[in-house]
Amino acid sequence: MVKIERSFPAPASLAEETEIDRTMALVRDVFNLRNTGMRTYTSDIRFKKLQKEMNILFDNLEKIKQHPNSKVTAMKLKALLSRESAFAAFKRCYVREHLSEYPALQAYISF
Predict the structure, then answer these.
(1) Cα–Cα distance measured from residue 100 to residue 105, given in angstroms and rounded to the nearest whole number
(2) Which entry of 4, 21, 22, 41 is 20 to 30 Å from 88 by CA?
(3) What pLDDT score does 43 carry?
(4) Could you give the angle at the alpha carbon of 87 between the alpha carbons of 85 and 92, nearest 5°?
(5) Closest CA relative to residue 95, chosen from 68, 58, 42
(6) How far apart are the first and last CA of the chain?
(7) Residues contacting residue 85 through CB under 8 Å, at least 6 positions apart
(8) What is the predicted pLDDT for the residue at 1?
(9) CA nearest neighbour of 86 among 59, 58, 43, 46
């Protein structure tokens, strides 16, 4: 939290004091806001990217259930669950929690 105090001589007029107070309030507001517009925007973008990645994972998990011997789907899942993949921790955690449904994926998520 930014704390602003006057460390200069008193203003010469009431108008000057009002301007100083407004400037101090503006600086305080700008630096003490927790969720600025840009932070909210970037957070929303990250959330949408996570949703997209998880939907891709869910689609491929559904495909592997329907066709357990599909090598193409298995390769896609291996790439999705690799540590270098975007949001890998979320995807790996989901598969770990549902490992009973996808035992063939154990090798892709091992520590």
Answers:
(1) 10
(2) 41
(3) 81
(4) 85
(5) 58
(6) 40
(7) 53, 79, 91
(8) 45
(9) 46
